[in-house]
Description:
alpha+beta, Chitinase A, domain 3, 2 domains, two-stranded antiparallel sheet
Amino acid sequence: MIAFSRSWLVLAAAGSMWASPVPTLAAEGQPSGKAAPALVARVNGEPVTEAELGRLLSAPAERERLVRELGVEDPDGAALERLAMRKLVHRRLTLQEARRRGFTVTEQELGKAVTSLRSRFGDLGAMGEWMKEQGLDDQSLFDAIRADMLVARVRGALVEPVRVTDEQLRQYQAEHPEAFQTDEAWLQVIVVKERATAEKILAALRKGGDFGALAEKHSRGARARQRGDLGWVDAETLGPPLREAVRALKVGEARGPLERGSEFLIVRLEARRS
């Protein structure tokens, strides 16, 4: 179990600000009737489980977000774990506030959100691979989507009283032009587990091999069936080592292998715009 500093204990005990106590719920995705999951914290009596912490730290996209937020090229595991715990505690507090306000998500709303998510993938097989990478099953996926919708509603309610005039917006744009500049890149990515495999793919590319075909054949990434195509992405939102590689690439070039955790990446720049 993670040891909390005094500030952690204050945050976890922040339920005193709520109007009424919140009943303890099962962890997201935890089937009823099974042994109680191992806990790393409680927030107003509600558990934060080792499984939740593990999913957050192991999901590639979530881990990249944590690394970007820390602003360190190669952060140690303890720093990542502390940030992940802070996010899980904040999430619990936000969901408790959603219940205090009486916010709910109907089955129809949930169904539309799941359908929208599925539309991002070429087929259910690709979505299944993505879920596997994220450590999600059907129930935990539904729970996570419902929780995300509730968190968004709480945040929306908190900022609703804030009004920004057109004049204030124009003034901010004039004073901070860099905030409105983007560096977007159209990328293809191949994800493999072994450096030797990545080196073989790079050798095939140097001989004129088709990147998309190689991605379909070898990549273990969620977009393998889409020929490794990620589409347009904001280069600044990419985590290391992708961000640095994309900055240096010319259109049509590929680079790798880029080590990311236990994976090796090969990235190709299809196009760039700003």
